[in-house]
Amino acid sequence: MMEEGQKLAVRLVGRNGRRRFDQSSKDRLIMACLEPGASVSKLARDHGVNANLVWKWIRKHTQPLASPPSSTSSFIPVQITAASDEFEELPRKAERNRPLPSPAKVSASLPNGVKLTLECSDVDALTAIIGAPGHVQTWR
């Protein structure tokens, strides 16, 4: 355990008064807090640090490291099963005189094991469904 009353080594104090602590001092305090029977709040007080900050350091220390960015591409492989090499241009929507023979179906297998299948007889609706996730905003 660290010596009682020992302050953490401050590496830098910013203009706003925020202290940057020496990493080795932080590591020693974290290891002392992880010992059985240790009181994080008492150790934090003894070392002149807020207990919530010490808990944050402990969580960061004990969480598994985030996996490094994958060297593989984020793109999903697509299989195109066209029977002919010729490209037949479809008539424009206004020029279509018959409905599509069968619903359009799109299947995707994601790298995380999720399988997604979309089936819709309206190609425009299917296009909108596929494009919708690109316009979703997530808030953190």
UniProtKB/TrEMBL annotation:
Recorded GO MF terms: DNA binding; transposase activity
Biased composition range(s): Basic and acidic residues: 89-98
Pfam families hit by this protein: HTH_Tnp_1
InterPro entries, per the entry: Homeodomain-like_sf, Transposase_8
Any one of the GO BP annotations: DNA transposition
Region described as Disordered: spans on this chain: 89-108
Top-rank lineage group of the source organism: Bacteria
Designated name of the protein: Transposase
